[in-house]
Design brief:
With about 1000 residues, the chain is an alpha/beta fold. The protein is built from 23 helices and 38 strands.
């Protein structure tokens, strides 16, 4: 990623502007004296007009009129350069952006004297984003050709991860030839920089946005204009003691043509390594020559022999110095590493506990601090910092992906990072982590499952385990052994932007779905973790993140997320701690604390940030629950602890955190942690415990024996078999809330009119945490939309599609209107932070038009309930479709009756926002649809009324007495009772009916089918 420099305050902007002014005027700083003065491209003071080619000017473009951004020059007091900036607003459909073309009737510009192009960009984000996970802005420059619209396009991008002005510097070496489109089919595929015609900005899709831009200019001194470079396949070259390392050296040319001049590479083993020449290796010197005319890609090899002395040793390094004439030299010299050998911790036959103890006893404080550090891959200042700081872990935040974003590229990327650890003394492997929260959701083409809220609606623990197994298999195939999932939060207020990450509002439902942990990890004792289809899990977010009060958040513009959870001790235990106790029993390898604060009523402590809560982490999680894994912080979360940074580090580690997701500040964190230990403010015993916990999981994962990706299962990623599991999960997640006149299932011969914003939008149905952190509308990955699934399910049917229902409705027998939300994640999705629980005006209009014209079914694709009370009377069938992921076929399966509707509400569906929070068990409970509600098309309603209810209750009591309350037979008896009761209730859902109905589902999940039937009988009688 091009470097992004954040400027947090106006004062910083003023200071930076002063520096730029000095550069323009030839004044300080003196370090810039040898560089050419920056050259302005656009100052946005009005000197460049809005105009279209062939005249010089700024102009917009897009796939449709609505995709053209709206631009204006505006006066701003905080302008980094001058008094005006370029401001823009956009809502891109397919593609869109803007261009500055230079005049066609004048000579092209010559940029060869400069290193790159830079600009001031005003980010719109109100909370820090993971580097590389914000909205991606593409920047193109126009090289060669006749003019700006007949040139050659070279492209790069940066991500908008910050709030406020920041300076984006992009060296010309970061631009690559655009392969998907060239105005004149391409010219010579060489970025000459001597005939430049302007630049273009492509803006992101996925929802409306805004930006401000200022001070586009050229900067720096041009890099050497050599068209040939020398490359090595890798920097680190591990070798077993006594073996010979082969270092491959290649030449590569711009445009892949033969070399124009001879290239000589002089090499020699040099000083600075830990290996001793003549004892550990035989020194080598020499040169290799690539004559003029050598084909690009030609490789020569250098061999460095090592010597065997038989002693057990840590790894030793041998630098190989390269001097290159006639080409650009590699950015780094190669490093030969004689692998560690003969030490007890390397002996896979020993118990893990002994291996851990041996390794910890050998490590320095700095090495231990490194193992407790997790950095974002995009935040590495240099790849060598992995070894230089002895980092224990890297992660990919949402949207932090390799280029291209393919499974193969993921495996190669992780392996390249892992290779760097071979250059450390003990060659401790990285544990790489990702947020694969509903499938391997960062990877294009992966199988995207329904979000947890849909899995909870499915009420099938065995299927939940299978979805976890599919996710684990796809994640591990890309070389990633650690998944920051599942979220075992209990959502208590659907205004929370993370509510869809929960399995539901009932801790009993969340606990039941934690079979996903064993699907991902295998056996509870961790013995399966070294398999190539299992990953380490992370139960999150400890504890109470789903209970934060609306309005209690102080993070940016968030209203709920990262706020305060105020609960009694009894509610804390029963609601929020219970799922973590289950996760520990199931052997979860890691636990992630919540950003939120916990305020236990009556303890007089007030709110305590969970990352600082030693009572909960040390006292409850580790001591009382017996958690043996390690605790990993959330993204930059310790920075939210009150006090200075050393205090944040000290407090969090002493509270029980074992690894800190820094994620960008790894240099300062390791220094600070080391200083705190040396000062005695963190004990050595606490550090040793933390490191031992981390190393234990690395040994269990088999990373010391097999640090690199086992790509055996790469072909399974997005495979038909995996998608079949997701399709089944989708079908079971669909909750039929209303079905007047038996509109559903549809008949394959019916003429169907389909409308609504989410019928044919893969990104919307997948939701947040899909390819990028916040997700995006449109075809962001591979999959099947709901409309496409319907057409596959009824290939001979007349199925019309009109997103806004503007097409004529005459002649159609039934309408299907698919409405709901657009993607969001975390606090950005909080209600009141640009979101609400209402359907969009366009979706409401589509419902109104279609349902007035014909019998209609409305599908709500969303991460939480939407308020539909005012339109419910006109709707014949209503389905809560949740966020189904990539397999829209699963929705079509239940719409057309290939599978029955069997899903049940995992959360209460409110009548109005004023009712929130509303949950099963509340003393006052009068929702639109109660928790557990869900009609079925599986079987007809049983007869017998209350007499039948008495009979099934007797049978359920027998099962409970026999200890089989959680059996399939018990669930079947309750299902029979539920069908009888729902048929009696119809749509006349009153408080007297809803409260016992919801409580029945809770009792069933706790293993009391007789009690559940008793509550259902109470609801039956209340229905009158």
């Amino acid at each position: 990623m091009p470097p992004v420099r954040p400027w947090r305050t106006v004062g910083a902007v003023v200071a930076a502007t002063a520096v730029l002014t000095g550069l323009f005027t030839g004044g300080p700083p003196s370090a810039a004296a040898q560089e050419p003065a920056p050259r302005a491209v656009d100052r946005f003071e009005g000197e460049v007009p809005f105009a279209g080619p062939p005249a010089e000017g700024l102009f917009t473009w897009g796939d449709a009129a609505g995709s053209h951004p709206r631009l204006e020059l505006r006066e701003r007091a905080d302008a980094p350069e001058g008094g005006k900036v370029l401001e823009g607003r956009y809502d891109i459909g397919g593609w869109g952006g803007f261009t500055h073309d230079f005049a066609f009737d004048r000579p092209a510009h010559d940029w060869t004297a400069y290193k790159g192009i830079r600009l001031w960009w005003y980010g719109q984000n109100t909370a820090p984003l993971p580097p590389g996970s914000g909205r991606r802005i593409a920047l193109e420059i126009k090289d060669g050709g006749a003019n700006g619209e007949a040139s050659e396009l070279w492209t790069t991008s940066f991500t908008d991860d910050w709030e406020g002005w920041h300076l984006v510097e992009i060296p010309f070496s970061a631009f690559v030839y655009r392969t998907d489109y060239q105005p004149v089919g391409g010219i010579d595929q060489v970025l000459g920089l001597d005939r430049m015609w302007g630049y273009a900005v492509t803006l992101p899709t996925g929802g409306p946005g805004a930006f401000a831009l200022d001070g586009v200019e050229l900067y720096g001194t041009a890099e050497p204009a050599l068209t040939t470079k020398v490359v090595t396949k890798s920097v680190v070259h591990p070798v077993e003691e006594g073996g010979s390392a082969r270092v491959d050296v290649s030449v590569a040319t711009t445009g892949s043509g033969p070399t124009g001049e001879p290239v000589t590479v002089t090499y020699g083993t040099g000083d600075g390594g830990s290996a001793e020449p003549g004892k550990d290796y035989r020194p080598v010197t020499g040169s290799v020559v690539f004559p003029a005319g050598t084909p690009s890609g030609t490789t020569r090899s250098i061999t460095v022999p090592t010597m065997k002395d038989g002693a057990a040793e840590s790894a030793e390094t041998v630098p190989l110095r390269l001097t290159v004439d006639g080409a650009k030299a590699p950015a780094e010299d190669p490093l030969v590493v004689v692998n560690a050998h003969g030490l007890p911790y390397l002996d896979a036959r020993l118990p893990v506990r002994r291996r851990v103890a041996d390794l910890v006893s050998r490590m320095s404080l700095a090495e231990k601090a490194g193992q407790m550090t997790q950095a974002e891959r995009n935040a590495l200042k240099a790849p060598g910092d992995i070894a230089g700081y002895g980092l224990g872990s890297l992660l990919s935040g949402g949207g932090s992906v390799p280029t291209p974003n393919t499974p193969e590229a993921w495996a190669a990327m992780v392996d390249a990072y892992q290779l760097r650890t071979r250059a450390t003394r003990f060659q401790i492997p990285l544990i790489y982590g990702v947020d694969a929260v509903h499938g391997h959701n960062n990877v294009i083409g992966a199988t995207i499952m329904p979000h947890n809220i849909g899995i909870g609606a499915g009420r099938d623990p065995e299927l939940a385990a299978r979805t976890g197994a599919v996710t684990a298999k796809e994640v591990r195939a890309t070389g990633v052994p650690w998944d920051f999932a599942p979220c075992v939060c209990v959502t208590r207020d659907e205004r929370w932007g993370r509510s869809y990450e929960a399995f539901g509002e009932d801790p009993a439902l969340v606990t039941a779905m934690e079979t996903v942990i064993n699907g991902m990890q295998g056996a509870r004792n961790g013995k399966d973790l070294d398999r190539n289809d299992k990953v380490l899990t992370s139960a999150k977010h400890f504890v109470g993140d789903g209970g934060t009060a609306f309005g209690s958040s102080t993070t940016g513009s968030y209203t709920t997320d990262q706020g305060v959870t105020r609960v009694s001790r009894a509610e804390l235990e029963a609601v929020h701690l219970a799922p973590f106790a289950e996760a520990v029993k199931r052997g979860t390898g890691t636990v992630m604390p919540s950003y939120s604060s916990l305020d236990v009523l009556g303890d007089d402590r007030g709110p305590v940030k969970m990352h600082a809560n030693a009572e909960m982490i040390n006292g409850v999680l580790k001591d009382r629950m017996g958690f043996e894994g390690f605790v990993i912080s959330d993204w930059q979360a310790i920075d939210q602890i009150p006090g200075d940074y050393p205090g944040d580090v000290r407090t969090s580690v002493n509270a029980g955190l074992d690894m800190i997701m820094v994620p960008t500040n790894y240099q300062e964190f390791t220094r600070t942690l080391t200083a705190e230990v040396e000062a005695g403010r963190i004990s050595t015993a606490r550090i040793d415990d933390a490191v031992a916990r981390v190393l234990t999981q690395k040994f269990r994962l088999g990373l010391f024996e097999k640090p690199y990706a086992d790509t055996t299962h790469l072909p399974s990623i997005g495979s038909p078999g995996h998608r079949a599991v997701a399709r089944e999960a989708v079908a079971k997640s669909q909750v039929l809330l209303k079905n007047e006149g038996a509109v559903l299932p549809l008949k394959p011969t019916q003429k169907v009119y389909v409308a609504g914003s989410n019928a044919d939008d893969l990104g919307n149905q997948a939701g947040g945490w899909t390819i990028s952190w916040q997700g995006a509308s449109g075809r962001t990955t591979t999959g099947t939309t709901i409309l496409e699934g319907m057409r596959k399910a009824a290939p001979g049917a007349d199925i019309a599609w009109s997103k806004d229902a503007s097409a004529p409705t005459d002649g159609y027998e039934v309408g299907v209107v698919v409405v709901g939300e657009t993607p969001y994640a975390e606090g950005f999705g909080d209600v009141g932070n640009g979101h609400d629980l209402e359907l969009s005006p366009a979706d409401k209009a589509a419902v109104d038009k279609v349902c007035a014209a014909m019998p209609c079914a409305v599908l709500v694709v969303s991460g939480r309930p939407q308020l539909i009370a005012d339109r419910l009377p006109a709707v014949d069938a209503l389905v809560a479709s949740w966020l189904p992921g990539t397999e829209g076929d699963g929705v079509a399966d239940v719409l057309y009756g290939t599978r029955p509707f069997t899903g049940r509400l995992p959360v209460t569906w409110p009548r109005s926002e004023a009712q929130l929070p509303v949950n099963v068990g509340d003393s006052s409970y009068d929702p639109q649809f109660p928790y557990g509600w869900g009609l079925t098309t599986l079987t007809p309603t049983p007869s017998g009324g209350e007499r039948a209810l008495r009979a099934v209750r007797v049978a359920a009591e027998v099962l409970r007495t026999a200890g089989r309350g959680r059996s399939a037979e018990g669930r079947g008896l309750v299902e029979t009772a539920r069908l009888i009761v729902q048929d009696k209730i119809g749509q006349d859902i009153t408080e007297a009916v809803a409260k016992p109905f919801a409580e029945a589902d809770h009792l069933l999940l706790t293993g009391d089918p007789a009690g559940a039937i008793g509550k259902l009988t109470e609801a039956y009688r209340a229905a009158g």
